[in-house]
Amino acid sequence: MSTNPIPDWRAKSNLLAIDARAFIHGQRVASLAGETFDVISPIDGKTIAQAARCRAEDVDAAVKSARTTFESGKWSQQAPAKRKRVMLKWAEKLLAAKDELALLETLDMGKPIKYSLGVDVQSAANCIAWYGEAIDKVYDEIAPTPHNALALIRREAMGVIGAIVPWNYPMLMSAWKLGPSIAAGNSIVLKPSEKSPLTAMRMAELAIEAGLPPGVFNVVPGFGHEAGEALALHMDVDAIGFTGSTRVGRKMLEYSGQSNLKRVFNELGGKSANLIFSDFDDLDRAAATAAGSMYFNQGESCNAPSRLFVQESIADSFIEKVVAQSKHYLPGDPLDNNTVLGALVDQGQQRTVMGYIEAGVAEGARLLAGGTAARQDTGGFYVNPTVFDGVNNTMKIAREEIFGPVLSIIRFKDEADAVAMANDSSYGLHAAVWSSNIDRAHRVAKALRAGTVHVNCYDEDDITVPFGGYKQSGNGRDKSLHALEKYTELKTTWIRLGR
Questions:
Q1: Please, which contacts does 283-286 make with residues 24 or more away whose CB atoms are closer than 8 Å?
Q2: What is the CA radius of gyration of the chain?
Q3: Which of the residues are catalytic?
Q4: For residue 29, what is the DSSP state?
Q5: Are strands 307-311 and 273-276 parallel, antiparallel or unpaired?
Q6: pTM of the model as a whole
């Protein structure tokens, strides 16, 4: 019985030719000013590419391409079944290029290659395919009108969508915008993070190879205050799908008001609460999940369960289990197939995380594990998995999104105490409750103010359910059929029957 050999990712990276030019109207192009910026790998701090530094004039060119193609009807007026075939072929091409895409993702933002390959590429391709399959199965409506009238309620493509995505899941966050917007018939201009722009342009090339008309999918790499701001302010962009920080999400709303009142769908940060009750019957699994979910993707996840609430009666023993589990997530070489915790995206993020760790110590939290930089001899940006006990809900590490491998443990007395503290946050993205009492599980899940509540698990959702949050976690909902609602206009056609 033969088995597939494990790739030598280091050797593959040495052979990889990286093209980081923009992608406008179906082809790679330099920025109009000829400017570039360094793409630095957090694995070792070395420059791996020069990306096109797009500014307002480049964004304008991309938007004009998107608008021209949309108005031509080459994609927007294609039958849904035809759009489906192209998107399914696109998903197949993503999977066929999985090694290249995974390697670009890991080199670019530092996540372990096993997750780039097994999670990010697979999930991105699945997202594109899922929306392709869905688009010819979504029906419009007929209203219950009087006998002398017929009212049709239809969803139509909006036009040109601007998408601005973060650096932590570059392919997947892009796919969550691309899938529903392109399936619905829109054209899109994508601005990837300047910290991880590489896979976006390659995804666009593969879309063209699959049959997507030039102009439907354009990519403008660049900085947020240049390309991102220009896209959000553009008068010919109909909507912005943004995933990122709450601070920048506020700016997206301001830019909408300053321009054409474009729709803004913000999917923002989180400080998710993970509640462990003493009646749960498998605390070993709960501890393993608490650690694994926290340290996945180096803690650089908006839904990371960074506030761990533990009932006082089991706190000491449960915390011991969590600390023991944290030892399994020591940083390693992201290009090693066995690594489970990689590099933080850049030196600035490493400094930010270390600053939060220092703040936790200064405010009196007890550092039980980690708290230090790692692999400093590599030139890369690594932080050891960190656990704080003795945290209260007013501390900086409990209030603010850290976006790194830092877990804050807060003890609670009873159910009311746990729910009150969990909800005492400006965020409301994800949450979890662990209890073997079904009444309590339902009761607490209903009481938690979060877009997704997990029961006796964490982060086990899929493409069929919406992703987004309450409060300052934003108003955007990615994934599921609900995402189609963001990128379509609702039109009523009222027809008078008879004289």
A1: 283/314, 283/317, 283/318, 283/321, 284/321, 286/318, 286/434, 286/456
A2: 23
A3: 267, 302
A4: E
A5: parallel
A6: 0.96
